[in-house]
Amino acid sequence: PDFPKGFAAFNTAYGDITVNSYLIWDPRARIAAAFDTGANCQSMLDLVNAEKMALRYIFLTHTHPDHIAALATLATATQAEVWSSELEPVDYPGAKFFKENVHFHVGTIAVKTLFTFGHSPGMTTYYITGLSWPLAVVGDSLFSSSMGGSPTHFAEQFRNNKEKILTLPRDTVLACGHGPLTTLAQEKQHNPFLAQ
User: Does pTM top 0.70 for this prediction?
Assistant: First the structure.
């Protein structure tokens, strides 16, 4: 799936792993939203500045350190609102918390919150419409050919993935917390946890 405009992915090193963060924007309104920050947000900031955008929101999929390592830097540089799930409040001054099935708007783009917890208490998937493809930023709920683990809440993760992610449109692009982008159709066919 190709996004000619309005979507960018960033991959940064955190210790011996890499972590993804994402940016969406309305090219006309020049309003943007970030999803997680990764370990370093400089490339994201460079794009925001180069495109003369206003970063309005920083949405967190969850609060594990690799996903929010650059939160203070990004929030300070942009004055964006910081949002996380009410089930997993982020410890950041002025942060706001949402319930499930809340809708945000980034210009003409709609963002809906889905609670897909298990890997963490408030893991959130953001379902996004208004770009060239439907997009789900799934954090560590699901990966290409794998899924987010949990030593104690794996059953919840599995159930939430099946009920809330697998029921999205088949052409939905999945933007995962680690690893490559994938599509729901591909995961339904090839993911050993989810193949039907």
Answer: yes
